[in-house]
């Protein structure tokens, strides 16, 4: 894997982290401006991932880095305006299958929810309106172990009222073979 970082300090930190995770021997880290100078490789990449402020400026360089047989590009952008400019650049450079997905972080807390079983009385044939006659079932056989207490408990995901973080967009495209 080749990774290119604009900031020297971030590149050094990336090298440290790759070494800590025992994959340093699989990764080449370079420091340069890919928007101005490209990636430093030609026709060898299976995929290119862009996480830079102006990804549209690097699309032509990414195309050169990708193999002749095609390849995929992915760009992360926090703003829809960046997505629009990147999609236009991808089209201009002959990329196809351009798609964008919005990525949201929405945290759900797992909670035990207790709901009271409504007493709707008996049906016309005299059966319980819940469909379960709690008096004839043992606790182990009951569909709802808390039936005698006239509540049902279950686990559920409850979203936070406020979203932490912000949205982001992933744009994917395929290098045209022709």
Structure description:
The protein has helices spanning 8-20, 34-37, 59-65, 80-92, and strands spanning 2-5, 28-31, 47-50, 72-77, 96-103, 108-116, 151-159, 168-174. The chain has 178 residues and is an alpha/beta fold. It has a domain at 2-105 and 166-175: Vaccinia Virus protein VP39 (Rossmann fold). It has four helices and eight strands, in the order E-H-E-H-E-H-E-H-E-E-E-E.
Task: Give the gist of this structure.
Helices cover 21% and strands 29% of the residues. It has helices spanning 8-20, 34-37, 59-65, 80-92, and strands at 2-5, 28-31, 47-50, 72-77, 96-103, 108-116, 151-159, 168-174. The radius of gyration is 28 Å and the shape is elongated.
How much β-strand is present in the residues? Answer: 25-35%
- CATH top level of the domain at 2-105 and 166-175 is Alpha Beta
Silhouette = elongated
- Per CATH, what is the topology of the domain at 2-105 and 166-175? Rossmann fold
Major beta sheet, specifics? Answer: 4 strands, mixed
Domain tRNA (adenine(58)-N(1))-methyltransferase catalytic subunit TRM61 C-terminal: 1-175
Protein name: tRNA (adenine(58)-N(1))-methyltransferase
Catalytic activity: an adenosine in mRNA + S-adenosyl-L-methionine = an N(1)-methyladenosine in mRNA + S-adenosyl-L-homocysteine + H(+)
Keywords: Methyltransferase, Nucleus, S-adenosyl-L-methionine, Transferase, tRNA processing
